[in-house]
Amino acid sequence: MNAEARKSRIAVVSPFLDKSHGTERIVVEWISQLSPKFEFHVYSQEVRDLDLSQVAWHRIPKMPGPHLLNFSWWFAANRLRRFWDRHMRGLRYDLVFSPGVNCLDADAVSIHIVFAELLRRVRPELKLRNSPARSWLLLIHRRLYYRLIVALERRVFTDPRIQLILTSPRTSSELARHYSRQAQFPLICAGVDHETFNPGRRAALRATARTFLNLDKSQFVLLMIGNDWRKKGLGTLLDSLATMPDLPVQLLVVTHESTEIKHEAFAYHSFDSRVRFLPPRHDVDVYYAAADVYTGPSLEDTFALPASEAMACGLPVIMSSRAGVSDFITNGTDGLVLDDPTDAASLASMIRTLYQDRDYCERLGAKATETASQFTWEQNGRELEAIFREVISRKSRLQARPVTQES
Known about the structure:
This protein is α/β, with parallel strands linked by helices and 407 residues long. It has helices at 22-34, 67-88, 115-122, 136-157, 171-179, 199-212, 229-232, 234-242, 258-264, 285-290, 305-312, 344-356, 358-372, 377-400, and strands spanning 9-13, 16-17, 39-44, 46-47, 56-59, 95-99, 108-111, 163-166, 220-225, 249-254, 275-278, 293-296, 317-320, 336-338. It folds into two domains: 3-191 and 376-397, Rossmann fold (3-Layer(aba) Sandwich); 199-372, 3-Layer(aba) Sandwich (Rossmann fold), CATH 3.40.50.2000. It has 14 helices and 14 strands. The relative contact order is 0.11.
């Protein structure tokens, strides 16, 4: 069967896929949109929240031990598994797609973070002399992992044969700064499921959500969703809470990292009762319904999907200028933008303003819904399909080009 008589076959290479993590959720949504158009084969160690009747999952086993060890194993193992499938099972792919640097032979790579930029911003906190000795082993692990990823980025992001797909406008300048890669790359911003995330549904769920989470009417609830708490700016948010002992503020942090955060982030804080850690859940709209403000003082965040979902729900947001979604926010109109994500005093001032002026808070939320309406998964699917078909067509032309021999 030739390529024209069947769906184009695409290999998706990602360590795991689910809807509990930003990048992975985006990829799950993209595959779900495009599975009627392409034949997807997923190479991953774990897959959840994806209809496996619509895709083929080629499971890669995990390597126990530190993340750096497992990632190194994963990087080699997914390549070996695809090599085996190609030569022993005849599985040839029209396109290999990777969210981030998961292989060196991808035809298309979507960029959800530039680790070289993240490393530049967090380098001071990775210095051993700035941290207690008990955390040195973890710091060394993080430094080695970041350096490995940056080295792989340099290989992948500078390869002109690989089609880079941006998920935030600011990524273009980061590629130019760190890898001297200057070009007009296609941009696909994360979508939003507007049937789930909308002001009407938030209002209908609010009373039930507040009761379920044991929140009383007097509490002004801040919400943060995400992993890698250092990158998400939780330290700044905790520092800002310390300056507002007079306000009935409750912070909900939805993350997989609650144990690690409690051990490290609270080492220099004494207001544990004002902060609650909650597990990610499929009906995340319950958390948006319970909250009064979404806060995201990220040190580095290519887009920040939870922020766009919060905006779609009509929730006012405070976002760092280093989060990609802030490019679509007009400060003071449909959200607040924190210029310096380490400025706890300015963040506290913004929170206090929203607490004291509830009418302003509601106006920001209403305008946020209008802004978020431009982000849809359906549009994502159409844009990504066009990119994939162009890359596949380009590969076909190159493979069909006759080889000339020099005399």
